[in-house]
Each structure stands twice: as C-alpha cells, then as structure tokens.
Specification:
The complex is a heterotrimer.
Chain A lengths: L1 E6 L2 E6 L6 H7 L18 E4 L2 E4 L12 E3 L7 H11 L8 H14 L4 H7 L11 H11 L4
Parallel strand pairs in A: 1-5
Antiparallel strand pairs in A: 1-2, 3-4, 3-5
Helix pairs in contact in A: 2-5
Chain B lengths: L12 H5 L6 H4 L5 E7 L5 E7 L1 H5 L3 E5 L30 E2 L5 E7 L2 H10 L1 E6 L36 E9 L2 H6 L3 E9 L11 E6 L5 E5 L4 H12 L6 E4 L16 H11 L3 E4 L2 H7 L6 E9 L5 E13 L5 H10 L10 E10 L13 H19 L3 H8 L8 H5 L16 H12 L1 H4 L2 E3 L4 E11 L9 E8 L5 E5 L8 H13 L6 E5 L16 H28 L6 E3 L3 E4 L5 E3 H10 L7 E7 L7 E11 L5 E11 L6 H20 L29 E6 L22 H13 L10 H10 L1
Parallel strand pairs in B: 1-12, 10-11, 14-15, 19-20, 26-27
Antiparallel strand pairs in B: 1-5, 2-4, 2-6, 3-5, 7-15, 8-13, 9-10, 9-12, 13-14, 16-17, 17-25, 18-19, 18-24, 21-22, 22-23, 25-26
Helix pairs in contact in B: 6-7, 9-10, 10-19, 15-16, 18-19
Chain C lengths: L2 E6 L4 H10 L2 E4 L11 E7 L8 E3 L3 E5 L6 H4 L1 H4 L5 H7 L4 H4 L4 H5 L7 H7 L3 E5 L3 E4 H6 L8 E7 L4 E7 L9 E7 L3 E6 L6 E2 L1 H10 L3 H14 L10 H19 L1
Parallel strand pairs in C: 1-3, 2-3
Antiparallel strand pairs in C: 4-5, 5-8, 6-7, 6-8, 9-10, 10-11, 11-12
Helix pairs in contact in C: 4-7, 9-10, 10-11
Classes of the chains: A alpha+beta, B alpha+beta, C alpha+beta.
C-alpha cells in the first residue's frame, strides 16, 4: 500500500506493507539515523518525532502515519548544537543511541524543563550501554540550561 | 605534553551523533540477500531428519543450508591469539543442537518476509536428550554435550568432554592447608555471579559479498577483524588471502563481539550463491544465541592472624561456559590472576576449579572477563573477614594490599590460558585511590550506617580492583604512518575502535611524537587488506599495546623526516631537528617546512613515500587499579536498594584523553552496577532463556545510578605510551562487591548471589 | 510479530465498528504491545484518525477519548491537576516518555493488562468505561466482565469528587514495569486496589469494609495492610515470587493508607 508522509519537511509517497513498522520503512528509504536497537520499544534508539512528539518508530505501524508528519535527527536544526556538546564530553561513544537521545532532548528544550530530575524521567527510555549516562548528563545540562 | 592529555572530541563524533550511515547494516550492499537462522527449540537434541523441500519452494528464497551443506571443521568462535586456549568444539552447523537457540539451518532470500515464511516451513525431526541445565551437576552428567570425536583443545587446558569439562586449572603457592592451621581467624563463604548480557546496542550484524577478484569480503560489527579472517578461513577451508574483513563503525562490543557470530552464516550464503548477503540479529537472538558472561561460583577461604595480616587465600571455582567453550579457561584464570595479586603478601594462595559445559546460552568474553566474578567473591569475603577480626575493612585492605614497586608470584604463574610473566608493578597508586575515595564519600562520617527514617538506612561499602593492559607476550598490535604532500599523515592501524575513541587517542599519541596537531593525523583502522595486523579490541589492550606500536611508528617517522630534511637542507642529520612544522638547522638558520619537504619528496626531489611502521607486543601487562565506594539506601520494608553515590578513584597511568578515559570508567561502572543490582537472568525449566528482551532483562537506566563521581590519581607507567595504562575494563569490577558490602553495612544482610534484587534483600531481612 | 493483510484508518467509530464486526479484524490502540503478539489478522483497524483523542472538562466529570495517549496526563492542563496531580504522578513513571506518547487509554484498559499502573489508579477513582456497543460500565465491573462480542472502547469518564489519593509501587529498576502496585483513595469511604500481582488490579473488598467500619487510624492501618496481603491473590512471574509480592503488598498498602489518613 502507499502512504503520503511529510518527512523532514519533504512530502514523500512511500510504498509499504500493511504490517510493516515505521522504523523498517524509514531505514528502507535511507533514513539511516533511525536505528534498530531492541525491537520492543524499550531502548529509545529509534525515537523520531511524529507530529512533533517523540515516539519509538519500532512500535508504530507505518500505515498509521499516512497523512502525518515525521522528523528525524536530520530534520532538526538544533541537533547539531546538542551533538557538539555531547562530542565535547566524549559522550557519543559508539553513537548508536545518540540520534534517538538527541531527538528526545531537542523536544524537551521546547518544554523548557530545567530540573535535572524531571529531565531524567523524560529521558528514561533512552538507554545507553557505553557512557554510563554521566557524560550525556553533563552535555544535557548545558544544552537545556539546567538549574543546579 | 600538547596532544596527549588533550580533551578533544572523538574524530568520528559528529558523524556518529548526527546519524550518518556508518554501521554494518547501513553499509551492506543494497541488494544483499537477507539471511536468517532456524534455531533449535530444544536445549539438547540430535537432528534425525531435516526437510527443506517445502521451504525451498517459497518465492524469493534463494538458498537453504543445513549441516549437510557446509564444511565440518571444528573451530572456536572465540577471537583470541592463535593457537587459541579455547577448545575447538563449534561447527558452522552440526547435527547436534546444544542449547535453545543453537543454529539448525541457514535461510537466505530476497526479503525478510519470504525468509520468515521459509523458516516456518522447514521440518525438523529431533531426537531429544535430557539437557544439562544446572552447572553444579554438569560434571559427570549422563548427558554428554560434546560426544563428537573431532572436538579437541589446541593444547593442554584440562579439557575432558566425556565429563562435560571444557577446561580446568589448579595452582598453589605455599601450603594452604598448613598455613590455615596457623591462622587465628578463618572464614569460608560461597558466592555466585550471573550470566550478564552485554547489550551492545547495535545488534550483531555481518554482510558479505564477492569482489571483482573473486575474493570474499566481509563487513562485520566485530572487535576482532583479523581473528575473524583466520577463523572463517579455517571454518570453510579457504585461504586467508582470499578473505578481507572490514570493520566499519560499530555500536558497542564489551566483549560480545570478540568472536565470530553472524559471519560464517553470511559467508556460507555468499560462497554458495555468489551473491551479497547480510544478517542482522534480532535483540532476542542477541540475548539467546550470542554470548553472555560466564556465570561462576566461588568457594573462598581466607585466613588471617588476629593483628590483621591476611595469610591465606583459597579460591575454588566452578564456571559455566554454556554449550561451547569459548573463553572458558581464560575467563576462569583471570578471576584469579586479576584479583589475587591485590593481596600479594599472603603466605599461601591457591586457585583451582573447573569450567563445565551446560545446555545453555554460550558464555564468552565480557568486559571484566572473570575479574569481576572473582572480585565480587574475594572483595565480599575480605569485608566478612575484616568484620570477624573486628577491623575496619579499609584498614584491613591497606595493611594487606599491593603497593608500587612490589610484585606478586601470581603474575608469573597465572597468565591467560598459560603461564604469565614475572613483573614488578612499576605504577600503583592504589593507596592514593583508597585515601581519595574515603574523602570523597566521607567514609569516616558515614561508615557503617546512618538511619534515615524508620524504614530506611544508608550504608557505605567499598572494594578495590585491578585489571591488566593487554596479554603479555601474546597480544600484538602494529601501526603504519604515511606522510602526505600537505604534511598530514595517514595512520593505519589494525586496532579496533568500538566507539571507545581508540582511533582518536592513537592519533593523539602519533601527534604528540611528531609535534603536530591531532587533526593532521588521518586514521583508518580495522581492515585486513589495508591496515597492519592487530589482535583487536579486547583485554584492555588498545591504549597500551596498539598505543605503543603507534608511538614507535611515529618515532620512526620522525627520524625519517629528519633524515630527509637534512638531505634537503644539505646538512648532517645530527645538526637537524624537527619541531612539527619545520625541519631546521640546530645552530643556524636553514629550514624547510614539513609541507614543502613532503611535496618535493613526492613530486620532484629524491622522490619517495615516507612510511614508517612498528609492531608492539607487551612484555608486561601493567595493571590499572581502582578503589570503588558505594553509598546505598535500603528500604527495610520492600528490600529496595537505591544507589545514592558511587565514587571511583582510578590509577590508569596518564590519561591520553581525559574525557574519553572518564567515559570509559563511567560506562564500566554502570555496567557493573547493572550486574550488581538489576541484570537478572532466568531460564524456563526446559532451558529456554526467559530474560531475552529489554522488558525482562533490565540494564540500568539513567534514573537508577545515583550520583557517580570518577577521579583519576596522578600516576605514570614507565612502559606505557606517555605513561598510560589501560582503562577499558577496570571500571566494571568493583560495583558488585562494593554495593554488596554497602548493603551489609546498612542493614546487616549479606547477599552472596548476584544480582541483589529487592526480593533477595527483603527475604534475607526476614530470615535474619 | 503480528501480521495484517490490510490496514485501515476509519474516520469515525461507527465506521470502525462496522469493519470490526464484518471482518477478521483487530483494533489498533497504541499498537506497541499488539505488535509483539505472534498472530495473523486480516485487517488492522487503526483509530488514530477517528477523532477519539479528545479531553473534555465538565462541571462534575472529565471525558477522555480512548485514543488519548497517556502522556496527556503529564501535559494536558485539564488532566495535570485532576485529583491534585494523582494521575500525573502515576503516569509519569510508566515506561518511557516516547512510549507514553503512543500508549493510549483505550489500548491500556481494553486488554486489561495486568502490569498496568494506570488501571490500578483508576480503579480507586469513580471511573466509567464507555464501550461503543455494550455501553457504560464502572471500571470495576468492566474488569470483571467478559464481553460476549467484540467492541470498541470509546471513552472513559472520571467523576470529580473530593478524594484523598495515594499510589505506591515497587520496581527494581525505575525503568521497569511494577512488581506490585497499590492505589488508595479516601472520601466517604476508603478504596484499595492492588495490581501487577501480576494479574490485573483488584479491589480489596473485605479490607475496605473493615476500614469503612472501623475508621482509619494507625492501628487499623497496620491491621488492614496485613488483611490486604491475605485477601488479594498473588502469583509468581519472571519479576518476582508470590511470597515477595505478599510481603511487599503489606508495606505498600500501609504507606498508601498512612498518606490518605
């Protein structure tokens, strides 16, 4: 079946299977920043914005997003600012989970949350096995202007 | 130092962070056949009959291979120095299946859908055997997991397949029995550690194709490209020269990718069909059918005199290697060799035990590599002994632990799979680590406990640890430096960056020697055709082993530049120096820029490519040390343990890139915290792994880790590149024991089986 | 992985219902858990565009459409303040923010998931379930009812009353399903619900009756928390044993009751 989607502000017509998940479709169409981590919606690595809100693309059927809007890390201008802060801390490490973390964190900037505890709860679903999170938190504090 | 100790971002950072296509699945040929594996539903069975006729008819299916279609050469998947200390007990496919998840057939087709359909249509008749699921009953069990005659060790490792023993080991220095009689205080305790999963976030992925020369090219998320090349050659009986292995960026390894996993299956398909093929493991497959940590049991006996001198350590172990014996002997020996030297002043020490086969998920290399298992047991027991002696556990450790300039007989006796090397510990700031950690956690104020409320108590606990820096006399790394016409350098290294940043720190080492900015060193790594040999990323070897190779290569390059510069300037070499920009006359004014020299060398005068290479194999394996301090809050009505603070003070020599070193320790700590508190492993009664996804297998989240503080003490390792030792593994070792000790200090229950769940704590509190 | 031959997105609930009863079809709520089941269904009916993501406030009650995602409890101004943030606090720690952005009210309640924190919390509030065909149920009735035919959850209604509430859970990792959860409310009467037993949440009727007869004080609370752990059935699962759940239930009920005392 065909769906019409806006991806990173570009209108696209995509050919999909009715039971395909969005993650697989995005990868098939070359959006490699969206990566498969766990298959069960738990790791947060495949996080994208659907109509502006962060969602795990592995847990959404592609057919659902027909007529809706998708943003990946490539479509977020602020991603680079945050990426630089992560890089300065060495908090990229293997980098596999980074795009998902960046998408979710850039969204949080809009919510203007300033308390680290609240931020941690909102980012709890972005798992990382390399960094131990601490370096990410140093970068997040700078990016979101966390009150200490 | 200008470039070494610089906190620069990783060279690949922005590419990784912003989602560029850099991992194996991104780079696999677009028209790759999709490869999937039919896996055994039984823990132990023999394939009586396998019928692929219906499955083969499905449209799009290109190739189905069973054990009848692939070479049957016994190999080990473990990526280790050759000949490997792991038994050769694995076959690409076999008529026996030895755990739930073991490979039965390889299916390749044009898309996932047809391959999945074909997997369902393959009919297999099994003769089912009674599986061995309890590692404490494996030795001498009526079911023999490896009855086949071809399986063999490469040299003596105490292998006895008829008894389900993959390896065994025993050593004793002095007489444990005699010395124990002289001790005033003796304790004997039993500890268990679990089969922790690596959970590297990029699932195991491999792709293969035949190039224009008819050679097999493998792209793989591996820690060990050169070992993969050798193992694939061995498994398929094809010459090494006909194989190229490329490691692109990889999404974490932690030991889980120190082996072949998907590579033989895509290779089998490509060799059979001539077509490109790829396999991307599902998360469930990664859990069920790659590797875990070796679960171990230790019986520890310690003896001391009443003045607090530790006199005897006896560690008797049992390790569960699962269905295949990868890293069986070596992880087991490391449990002793990377813990026992911490207490080097004992009168007698013994380490012995067996590694047994079971019909469970195979165990393999995992960060810590035995040391964390041994550390949990020994460092828990040390606290128990100190308490029995009525001594502060830190005072007890300080009295007995190793110091700079000392040695331990263990270094010589226990290596990895064979004898080790004698060495003096040239850099050891363990005492400073302990002192600093005590201050940071405020030990004097907090030890042993504080009551927070009627139901909550806080306690502190600690542990010390050591690791190594590569495997002495075995691990070899090599480097090549090449000068370009603009004065930049290509650094070609076999070393394998897993996301750790090793490409960057190796460039920093070269840049330091050459006195150029790290930005002028262009790194290409881990390609068996284009880069020199390196054993790969394991055993905390890259900074020390590969780093020393890079340093030597850079020193050679520096000499070459001076030599060619002198020629250009018409001066004697002894009167010329190189400052990174210019080759100049020491006592005069003649000079030529590196860029100019490089250009003329390539195009006009005395033409040649400047190229320098070096190899390094460590004669020693200098241990990094650390002290870990945990503060926990225990809820006595629910048993829940909340980690409040974790302080790690580390001696890893000079940190080449302090940011990356710090992240290595932080990441290691959190994996150790996971093993201590969260990462529970459960099997069904018939041997299926139940904790096979991230809903059931819980790695720590960012809200579970409390406040983590990492500090480095000043230290300099004379044999390391610019004073560096390794840092990759040391962070993981202390949390299990330090947290267990903190919980004991908080509420008086001693949990000796990992992980320490609320249920175990509450049930122990109730039984107190 | 679930397999479909067709994926439809009706614009109204009427249309959805017609499809549901005429075909071998299944409703997609959030989809996150449905996706993990290993079945073949002809038609997936996705309510995503069926205008069921409404939140309406009335004087005495609030209506929440079945396709409202549960992150609405932490972001929708009407829901944030409901029962002094009770449902916000409960929802905020359910799985992850990303998952809460796709998990729907209907997708949580209709399958009666045992692991749900939200069901336990809603069970101690005056909550009604509106099914398209079968009509209105209290949540309590709904959980006990086995529907004779397929239906679609249209909305839930939460009445505004003056209640004190408390929610307690035990998890090992914070990022996990609860090993056990307890919700308590107190208005004229006390309600106690226990969920993730691991079965779906139950009200502890005997204990509730005991407390309603004897009042809430430190003494009755101690007794009541013991009563609940005897009254409610528990079992083993991958996360914990029956014995542990029974023990920890006592502590959680005590804490919850003390909070509303």
């Amino acid at each position: 079946m065909k769906i019409n989607v806006t991806i990173n502000n570009e209108k696209k017509e995509l050919e999909i299977a009715p039971d395909e998940v969005l993650l697989d479709v995005l990868r098939r169409y070359g959006y490699h920043s969206v990566r498969r981590g766990c298959d069960t919606g738990m790791c947060g690595i495949c996080t994208i914005l659907l109509d502006g809100r962060p969602v795990p693309s592995c847990s959404i059927f592609a057919a659902r997003v027909d007529g809706h809007e998708i943003t990946t890390v490539e479509g977020l201008p602020e991603a680079k600012d945050f990426a630089k802060l992560l890089a300065e801390e060495g908090a990229d490490q293997c980098g596999f989970c980074s795009p998902g973390l960046i998408v979710n964190t850039v969204y949080l900037k809009k919510l203007k949350i300033k308390k680290m505890e609240e931020i941690q709860i909102k980012l709890i679903g972005n798992l990382c096995r390399c960094t131990g999170y601490v370096g990410q938190h140093r970068a997040i504090e700078k990016f979101l202007g966390v009150e200490k | 130092m200008k470039e070494v100790t610089r906190k620069i971002p990783k060279k690949d950072a922005l590419g990784l962070l912003l989602g560029k296509p850099v991992y194996t699945d991104d780079l696999a040929p677009k028209n790759s056949l999709i490869v999937k594996l039919l896996r055994s539903p039984h823990a132990f069975a023999k394939i009586k009959n396998i019928d692929i006729s219906e499955a083969s008819k499905i449209e799009g299916v290109e190739c189905i291979l069973t054990y009848k279609d692939v070479p049957r050469n016994p190999i080990t998947r473990a990526g280790q120095g050759y000949p490997e200390p792991s038994p050769h007990d694995w076959y690409i496919l076999d008529e026996y299946v030895r755990y739930v998840g073991d490979e039965v057939a390889i299916v390749a087709g044009k898309d996932e859908k047809c391959v999945n359909e074909a997997l369902k249509k393959i009919k297999v008749e099994y003769e089912i055997f009674e599986p061995v699921l309890d590692f404490e009953k494996a030795e001498g069990h009526p079911s023999i997991i490896h009855p086949e005659k071809e399986t063999h060790p490469m040299f003596e490792i105490g292998f006895d397949a008829q008894k389900n023993i993959a390896a065994s080991y025993e050593m004793e220095i002095g007489s444990v029995e005699e010395e124990l009689k002289k001790c005033d205080v003796v304790i004997s305790e039993r500890f268990y550690t679990q089969a922790q999963a690596h959970v590297a976030f990029e699932p195991h992925t491999a792709a293969s194709y035949i190039d224009m020369h008819g050679r097999l090219i493998i792209i793989s998320s591996t820690q060990v490209p050169f070992h993969v090349r050798r193992i694939i050659a061995e498994a398929f009986d094809i010459p090494i020269k006909n194989i190229r292995v490329i490691k692109p960026r990889i999404g974490g390894g932690f030991g889980g990718k120190q082996a072949v996993h998907g590579e033989p299956f895509v290779a089998a398909v490509t060799l059979k069909t001539g077509k490109p093929a790829k396999i991307v493991y599902t998360r469930q497959e990664v859990f069920e059918a790659t590797y875990s940590r070796h679960p171990m049991r230790y019986d520890i006996t310690l003896g001391a005199s009443k003045d607090g001198k530790l006199k005897v350590i006896d560690m008797k172990g049992l390790s569960d290697t699962g269905a295949y014996g990868e890293h069986a002997l070596t992880t087991f020996m490391v449990a002793g060799s990377k813990t026992l030297p911490l207490y080097n002043k004992v009168d007698a020490v013994r380490f012995s035990g067996k590694v047994v086969y079971t019909n469970k998920v195979p165990a393999g290399a995992y960060r810590g590599y035995g040391a964390i298992q041994g550390n949990f047991a020994l460092e828990s027991a040390i606290d128990m002994l100190a308490e029995k002696l009525g001594m502060d556990p830190i005072e007890f450790r300080k009295k007995n632990m190793i110091r700079e300039g000392e040695t331990s007989p263990i270094f010589k006796i226990m290596g990895e799979g064979r004898e080790g090397v004698d060495m003096i510990v040239r850099s050891c700031k363990l005492n400073e680590c302990v002192e600093e950690g005590m201050k940071l956690i405020n030990w004097k104020e907090k030890f042993p406990r504080k009551k927070i409320s009627e139901t909550k108590y806080r306690g502190v606990g600690m542990a010390i640890a050591m690791q190594g820096s590569g495997i002495a006399n075995i691990d070899m790394g090599a480097a090549v430096l090449k000068l370009n016409d603009d004065g930049s350098f290509n650094l070609l290294i076999g070393a394998t960056d897993l996301g750790t940043g090793s490409d960057t720190i190796l460039a920093q080492i070269a840049a330091e020697v050459l006195n150029v900015p790290t930005e002028d060193i262009i790194v290409y790594s881990s390609d068996t055709d284009l880069t020199p040999f390196d054993v790969g990323a394991y055993a905390s070897s890259t900074t020390y082993v590969s780093g020393n190779a890079v340093k030597r290569a850079a020193e050679k390059m520096r000499k070459l530049i001076i030599k060619e510069g002198a020629l250009k300037l018409g001066l004697d070499e002894s009167n010329v120096d190189f400052d990174g920009k210019y080759i100049y006359e020491k006592n005069g004014s003649k000079k030529v820029s590196l860029k100019e020299l490089a250009t003329v060398l390539l195009y006009t005068e005395n033409q040649k490519q400047l190229i320098a290479d070096a190899s390094y194999v460590g004669e020693e394996s200098p241990p990094p040390f650390m002290a870990g301090f945990a503060e926990v809050e225990v809820d006595i009505e629910t048993g829940k343990v909340k980690l409040i603070n974790y302080i790690a003070v580390v001696d890893c020599g000079v940190t080449i890139n302090p940011n990356l070193a710090r992240i290595q320790v932080e990441g290691g700590l959190v994996q150790g915290i996971g093993m201590a508190l969260f990462e529970d492993v459960k099997y069904s009664p018939n041997g299926k792994l139940l904790t096979n996804n991230l809903m059931h297998y819980k790695i720590p989240s960012r809200a579970d880790i409390g406040n983590i503080i990492v500090k480095f003490v000043e230290s300099y390792e004379p044999t390391g590149p610019f004073g560096a030792k390794s840092v990759a593994e040391i962070g993981i070792d202390t949390p299990p024991a330090a947290i267990a000790n903190a919980i004991y200090n908080a509420v008086g229950v001693r949990i000796k089986t990992l992980p320490i769940t609320p249920e175990k704590v509450l049930m122990s509190l109730n039984n107190k | 992985m679930i397999q479909f031959n067709e994926y439809l997105k009706p614009k109204t609930i009427e249309e959805a219902y017609k499809l549901l009863i005429t075909k071998n079809a299944e409703i997609v709520g959030g989809g996150a858990f449905l996706r993990l089941s290993n079945r073949k269904v002809d038609v997936a009916i996705d309510l995503f565009d069926a205008n069921l993501d409404f939140v309406k406030e009335n004087d005495n009650y609030i209506e929440i459409g079945s396709m409202v995602v549960i992150s609405a409890f932490e972001e929708n101004p009407i829901l944030i303040n409901l029962y002094n943030g009770f449902l916000k606090n409960v929802s905020e720690t359910i799985l992850s923010f990303q998952m809460r952005n796709i998990i729907t009210i209907g997708g949580t309640l209709y399958p009666k998931y045992g692991f749900s924190d939200l069901i336990t919390a809603l069970l101690v509030l005056p909550t009604e379930i509106y099914l398209y065909k079968s009509g209105k149920f209290t949540l309590e009735e709904f959980l006990k009812t086995k529907l004779a035919h397929k239906d679609i959850l249209e909305k839930i209604v939460i009445k505004k009353e003056n209640l004190k509430t408390s929610f307690q859970y035990i998890r090992n990792s914070e990022y996990d399903f609860s090993i056990l959860n307890v919700a308590v409310s107190k208005g004229e009467e006390v309600k106690i619900a226990v969920g993730a037993r691991p079965g779906v949440a139950l009200l502890a009727y005997k204990t509730m009756q005991f407390l309603n007869e004897n009042g809430l004080n430190e003494e009755t609370i101690i007794k009541a928390s013991k009563m609940v752990s005897d009254e409610i059935p528990f079992s083993d699962d991958i996360k914990a044993s029956k014995e542990y759940r029974k023990k920890v239930c006592e502590a959680l009920v005590k804490r919850a009751l003390l909070e509303v005392m």
